[in-house]
Amino acid sequence: MKQILEHFSPAIIYLAVSVFLIAIFAVLLTTDGPIAQAFQNCITSALSTLMNAFQKP
Fold first, then answer.
1. Whose CA is closest to 25, among 39, 42, 12?
2. Fewer CB within 10 A of the end CB, N or C, for the chain?
3. Contact 30/36 with Cβ under 8 angstroms?
4. How far apart are alpha carbons 2 and 35 in whole angstroms?
5. The whole model's pTM is what?
6. Per residue of the chain (57 residues), what is the pLDDT tens digit?
């Protein structure tokens, strides 16, 4: 059991940290705060730029 924990503990720690960071980003982006608004503006701007680039002249 000790060998298993020594072998897999770094992977478990990385997984836990990744889940924690994803949860933080999810909370920041779901609230109607300035971060969520800036993210939405960035996506809208990128999509409108792409749509303008692909429109036929």
1. 39
2. C
3. yes
4. 43
5. 0.54
6. 888 888 889 999 999 999 999 998 888 777 777 888 888 899 999 999 999 888 866
